[in-house]
Amino acid sequence: MPKVLVVAESKNGEIKKPTLELLSLAKSQNLQAETILIGNDVSSHADLLAGYGAEKVYLADDAGLSIYNTSQFTALVEDAAKQSGATQIWLTSSETGRDLTPRVAARFGVGALSDVTELEINGDDITVVRPCMATKLVQQCRFRNDGLKVISIRAGTYEATEASAGSADTVSLSIPEGDPRVEVRNIQVEETNEIELNEASIVVSVGRGTGGTEGCEFVKPLAGEMGAAFGASRAVCDAGWMPHKHQVGQTGTVVSPDFYFAFGISGAIQHLAGMSGSKVIVAINKDAEAPIFKVADYGIIGDLFKAVPVFQEEVGKLKN
Question: 4-33 in b/e burial notation, b at 16+ Cβ within 10 A?
Fold first, then answer.
């Protein structure tokens, strides 16, 4: 029977939603699933992972793991995979997952498929769909090898189901030494209450059509009222109107929300690559020929500064 090892991720004392999506997917496919959980003071999350279907949790809990270290994390995933006897390793397409996926595959001398948006699972025979060439093409891929398969899956591709009560069967891993060539001297963490782009169910993004920083700030309250993450096109971030952490696109954050609102965004290829996986896309632009309308489910050809107040009014009605 196929066995999946899910590489869990946590942040700010909580398991990240994409991890729960992967466990829910394994459960929906009736696959045997185990997880590896790495970090500092993360042991308390083991029961939650069990509630989402993890039959065993390989635990690496140590103060020295509070900061991501490539060599340590790769060695720990390798150790857990060998102990588990997993035939598949699933990771999320986060910054951590993108770094780990090829390194783990290299440790085992097998291939890897990254940023997957669809899986067809028939035992250990797997066919995946993944975008490429800035989403101008969609690949359908299969593994040539019969051994271990390493896959990273885009956040939001699958739904996280409700957890049941769980009691974890844990296995403590030996903590390897870190890379002596790497020394973390300082970490700067920005305190913010903003919703993260790659975990948001609703994203409101702004483009060059806002005209500047004031235009971006004009739209921002709507995102707050909708409980949405606030994003931007590369042009907006490069112009300094918004910080680069808000950039949605191939070179920014890839998002797959339930609803994506594009205000004043023309739809450059690299931006479309980062948001075309959204379930419903709503676009507002004065240019009827803007490429964003080719992928939008709903489009408004008009002035965003007239449209935003209407959206705010309607959102207010729904909330009341």
Answer: bbbbbbbeeeebbbbbbbbbbbbbeeebbb
Cα 167 from Cα 47, distance rounded (Å): 5
Residue 201's Cβ-count burial label (10 Å; 0-12, 13-18, 19+) is middle
Domains of the chain with bracketed CATH: 3-172 (3.40.50.620), 197-319 (3.40.50.1220)
Tokens found for residue 143: 């593994």
Cβ atoms within 10 Å of 278's Cβ, excluding its own:
23
The per-residue pLDDT for range 289-300, each reduced to its tens digit, is 999 999 999 999
Which residues make beta-bridge pairs with 41? none
Q: How confident is the model at residue 7 (pLDDT cuts 50, 70, 90)?
A: very high
pLDDT tens figures, 213-271:
999 999 999 999 999 999 999 999 999 999 999 999 888 888 888 999 999 999 988 89
